[in-house]
């Protein structure tokens, strides 16, 4: 008989009291993943398949979409869910390929900062966006700006 | 190797018809789905970082946004978008496979056939997307 050695990682039971953050992270990946499939597949279909696809995307296209609160909230939901999903997935990879220590902490800090800064930036962009900025050439703007 | 509470497993001395490197997991559907899930996930993450920054240019000026989004409409980036959509579709379908394997014992037992279903659905989706996208990229 050949003996297969026990895995090197010792058993780490979840804390008995308090919130089990790793469990909630695990649940988040699955729940956000399912929601993101609906959000992103629709995003790709509307922006790449309908009409002239990627060739139709310009400032006027984005202005036309974000004139509707429906697409503003759609895109903000994608932003938050996808960045947290992605950053948490990258955290799993950092945990897998690095040893605990300063370098690992810095990598996780970088992931956290990248996600936090882009979530704040993206949310501000979507909700402070002006589809008809003053002084811009009219032919670059959505058609409703002329009215 | 210190003994741990996880204990040890024993395997038969001579497994029937073992291929080099072939085990229940290594080199099989389970491993490749994991590898592809990681690679596509990392690729999508870095695209997402760039995509939020380029979209944020709408807040700078129409000219700045149009200049950068114009680079997404070149032939070389058009092919890149096929790769991007391919990565997203695989990650999405395999993610659903993972959820099924986690929560449904039938799916746990049949994770291999589910991997090939993921591949088949990926091929069908890409056949629907790629021609239309490439026509948009190359003919308009």
UniProtKB/TrEMBL annotation, chain A:
Gene3D superfamilies: Fumarate reductase/succinate dehydrogenase, transmembrane subunit. The lineage of its organism: Bacteria, Bacillati, Actinomycetota, Actinomycetes, Micrococcales. It comes from Agromyces mediolanus. SUPFAM superfamilies: Fumarate reductase respiratory complex transmembrane subunits (SSF81343). Keywords: Heme, Iron, Membrane, Metal-binding, Transmembrane, Transmembrane helix. It is found in: Membrane. Its main location: membrane. GO terms for molecular function: metal ion binding. This is Succinate dehydrogenase. It holds the Pfam family Sdh_cyt. The chain crosses the membrane at residues 27-50, 70-88, 109-129. GO terms for cellular component: membrane.
TrEMBL record, chain B:
Residues 1-22 are annotated as: Disordered. The keyword Protein biosynthesis does not apply. Belongs to the cytochrome b560 family. The keyword Metal-binding applies. It comes from Agromyces mediolanus. One of its GO terms (molecular function) is metal ion binding. Its cofactor is heme. The chain crosses the membrane at residues 35-53, 82-101, 113-130. This is Succinate dehydrogenase, cytochrome b556 subunit. InterPro entries: SdhC_prok, SQR/QFR_C/D, Succ_DH_cytb556, SuccDH_FuR_B_TM-su. GO terms for biological process: tricarboxylic acid cycle. It is found in: Membrane. It comes from the Bacteria.
């Amino acid at each position: 008989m050949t003996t297969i050695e026990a895995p090197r990682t010792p058993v780490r039971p979840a804390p008995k009291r308090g919130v089990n953050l790793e469990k909630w992270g695990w649940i988040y990946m699955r729940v956000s993943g399912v929601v993101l499939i609906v959000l992103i597949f629709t995003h790709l279909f509307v922006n790449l398949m309908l009409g002239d696809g990627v060739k139709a995307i310009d400032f006027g296209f984005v202005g036309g979409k974000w004139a509707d609160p429906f697409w503003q909230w759609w895109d903000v939901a994608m932003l938050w869910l996808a960045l947290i999903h992605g950053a948490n997935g990258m955290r799993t990879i950092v945990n897998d390929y690095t040893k605990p220590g300063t370098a690992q902490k810095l990598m996780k800090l970088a992931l956290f900062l990248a996600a936090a800064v882009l979530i704040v930036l993206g949310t501000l962009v979507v909700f402070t966006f002006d589809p008809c900025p003053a002084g811009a050439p009219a032919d670059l703007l959505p058609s409703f700006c002329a009215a | 190797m210190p003994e741990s509470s996880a204990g040890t497993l024993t395997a038969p001395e001579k497994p029937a018809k073992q291929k080099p490197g072939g085990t229940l997991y290594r080199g099989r559907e389970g491993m490749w789905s994991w590898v592809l899930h990681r690679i596509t996930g990392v690729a999508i993450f870095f695209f997402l970082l760039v995509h939020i920054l380029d979209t944020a240019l709408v807040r700078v000026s129409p000219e700045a946004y149009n200049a950068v989004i114009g680079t997404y409409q070149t032939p070389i980036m058009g092919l890149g978008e096929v790769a991007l959509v391919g990565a997203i579709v695989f990650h999405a379908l395999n993610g659903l496979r993972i959820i099924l394997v986690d929560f449904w014992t039938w799916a746990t037992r049949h994770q291999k056939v589910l991997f090939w279903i993921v591949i088949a659905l990926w091929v069908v989706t890409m056949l629907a997307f790629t021609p239309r996208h490439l026509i948009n990229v190359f003919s308009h």
